[in-house]
Amino acid sequence: MAVHHSRPTHAAVRGANSAWRAAKGRFLPWELRPVRLSFKDMISCAATIRGSRQPATSIVARRMPRPSAPSRRMAHSHPYIFRLLLIAVAASCASIAGAQPPQVINREYEIKAGYFAYFGKLITWPQQSFPGADREFVIAVLGSNPFRQHLIPNGNNITLNAGRVNVDRIQGKGIRLHEYQSADDLERNYRPCHILFVCRSGAQGESVQRRVQAALAIAKGQPTLVVAEATSIDAAMQLARSGVMICYWNDTQTNQVRMLVNRDAERREKLNISARLLGLRLVQVL
Q1: CA dist., res. 204 & res. 64, Å (int)
Q2: Which secondary structure element, helix H or strand E, spans residue 272, and what is its range?
Q3: Cα 164 to Cα 55, 58, 114, 148, distances in angstroms
Q4: Three-state secondary-structure class, residue 275
Q5: What one-character-per-residue DSSP string does 112-181 give?
Q6: 8/17 Cα distance (integer angstroms)
Q7: Angle 189-119-203 (CA atoms, 0-180°, nearest 5)?
Q8: Rounded distance between C-alpha atoms, residue 236 and residue 105, angstroms
Q9: Which end of the chain is flanked by fewer CB atoms within 10 Å, N or C?
Q10: Residue 156 pLDDT > 80
Q11: Residue 15 has what pLDDT?
Q12: What is each CA distance from 56 to 32, 47, 158, 240, in whole angstroms?
């Protein structure tokens, strides 16, 4: 969980001041100095600042060894320093407790890049799908390419580096990458490919629906695996029903990348997805 360092909020300052006042008479000033807290204690501290009855200083003070005489003298001579330190700790705790869970699955594009290689093993394309298909395995990306650190140029071809998947050949062929920045770019410059991946993000003002429509129109009647991505199952269902063969969606509850498979689109374009892929627990078949 990321910690965002920022200036203390008014609420954090008020909470720290209240804790300071509540502690008077029970804790000596030198006991309110910075300590290394566990994550559990920091969350408890943040909850205190946000309205708990237990003073935050009790959490801090429980873990404090009795300081040396020089430390006590310094604390008495600089009481406001310790007060500021407590405010800083309180603000950090509040920031940690208020952080939102990430909306993007961890290693999302490393996983999706790895699936390019698995698709090559678990999906069958017709022989001579397009000129040159027997010499190169062609992947096309439409939109803002999120795979740059995983599809690495290697001479005229590409090396696929995605965690434990590190290959420079799929189906025994060199890997070729075509990139299209927008739907208009695809419509003007399209070259046949095995996989056409439609990204969530793309040219400014262009929707993912526009890119999907362009991809489906240009790949119609060709043995091209059209893959898209969405952030929710509802959005993925809509894209899959529009004709996308495989649509990823991010399951933030389990932190997994799942996929929907449209078998009607698969059969229409004369591809054959193996039972091994369809049987994965992360796959839902329409």
Answers
A1: 54
A2: strand 272-273
A3: 49, 48, 8, 17
A4: helix
A5: HHHHHHHHHHHEEPPTTSSTTTTTEEEEEEESS-S-TTTEEEETTEEEEEETTEEESEETTEEEEEEEES
A6: 12
A7: 35
A8: 15
A9: N
A10: yes
A11: 58
A12: 11, 9, 56, 51
pLDDT tens, position by position, 160-195? 999 889 999 999 999 999 999 999 999 999 999 999
What would the mean pLDDT of 59-87 be, rounded to a whole number? 50
**Cβ–Cβ < 8 Å for 256, 105:** yes
Closest CA to 237 of 228, 206, 205, 257: 228
Q: Quick count: other Cβ atoms within 10 Å of Cβ 209?
A: 15
C-alpha 88/C-alpha 80 separation (Å) is: 12
| 108-111, long-range: CB < 8 A, 24+ apart | 108/250, 108/257, 109/146, 109/147, 109/150, 110/150, 110/162, 110/163, 111/162, 111/163, 111/257
At residue 116, what are phi and psi to the nearest 5 degrees?
-55, -45
What are the tens digits of pLDDT across the range 245-270?
A: 999 999 988 989 999 999 999 999 99
How far apart are alpha carbons 231 and 260 in whole angstroms? Answer: 13
Q: Kindly state the tokens that stand for 212.
A: 């999907």
> DSSP for 217-250?
HHHTTS--EEEEEESSHHHHHHHHHTT-SEEEEE
How many whole angstroms separate alpha carbon 11 and alpha carbon 97?
A: 14
* Beta strands 151-154 and 157-162, pairing class: antiparallel
CB 225 within 8 A of CB 246: yes
Tokens 């189906």: give the residue: 171
Q: How far is CA 166 from CA 114, 134, 138, in A?
A: 8, 21, 17
Structural domains in the chain plus CATH codes: 10-98 (no CATH), 108-285 (3.40.50)
Q: Is the pTM of this model over 0.85?
A: no
In this structure, the number of other CB atoms found within 10 A of the CB of residue 54 comes to 13
Q: How far apart, in whole angstroms, are the C-alpha atoms of residue 226 and residue 247?
A: 9
